[in-house]
């Protein structure tokens, strides 16, 4: 049976997808989360995601798509590849996992359809510095059409963070009453350190700059 007021969130236990989880809880009566394992170096990521989903009282599903990491080794899955600290000119940093969001959203749609769920939520953002092609609005709209055609259904892919930078994501988590949980329990760091992280990797820097900027605005 189709569940009109239900959503499935692509969830990794990081700042963005955790904010999306709470956004979904505000907008849908029933929310489930799907977390993907694709050979990440940091298995802690999955433990953290499960713990946050439990706290949010959301059903948690784990899907193994490790073939993705095997097909295209990258610095998130291969310990021998050091993480790019700068974005190379005219290409993506080696934290880019080709096809990742397409694979995640496609499997999420198959899983959701089986549950009668047609709202999918993902925390991709065009405002993110790396400019990954599979985080752009054009791609999401295109995939939405493709999924509808592929399964003869009417999916809606929600991207609540699409145009927002990290500062705005912090603000949204605060408005959703999830600021402390996002700050203290999520894992964004490329070196696998939860909360404020290592402070030195690109993901930590971005998160920290956004946080400082948000706190400045809030306290002024
Ligand atoms: Zn870090």
Describe the protein's architecture and organization.
This protein is an alpha/beta fold and 220 residues long. The protein is built from 8 helices and 5 strands, in the order βαβαβααβαβααα. The protein has a 5-stranded parallel beta sheet, sandwiched between helices. Helix 5 links the parallel strand 4 (117-121) and strand 5 (156-158). Helix 1 (15-27) packs across helix 6 and helix 6 (166-175) packs across helix 8. The radius of gyration is 17 Å and the shape is globular. It starts with a strand and ends with a helix. Bound molecules: zinc ion.
Annotate the secondary structure layout.
Elements: E1 3-10, H1 15-27, E2 30-37, H2 44-55, E3 59-64, H3 67-71, H4 100-114, E4 117-121, H5 137-151, E5 156-158, H6 166-175, H7 179-185, H8 202-219
Parallel strand pairs: 1-2, 1-4, 2-3, 4-5
Helix pairs in contact: 1-6, 6-8
Zinc ion binds at residues 189-191, 193, 197-198, 200-201, 203-204.
Structural class: alpha/beta
- How large is the count of helical segments? 8
**Portion in beta strands:** 5-15%
Radius of gyration: 17 Å
Give the end-to-end Cα distance, rounded to a whole number of Å: 50 Å
Largest sheet: 5 strands, parallel
Q: Ranges with pLDDT <50 over ≥5 residues?
A: none
As laid out across the biggest beta sheet, the strand order is 3-2-1-4-5
The averaged pLDDT comes out at 91
Shape: globular
Helix content: 40-55%
Would you report the number of β strands?
5
Q: Could you say which small molecules are bound to this protein?
A: zinc ion
Write the H/E string, N to C.
Answer: EHEHEHHEHEHHH
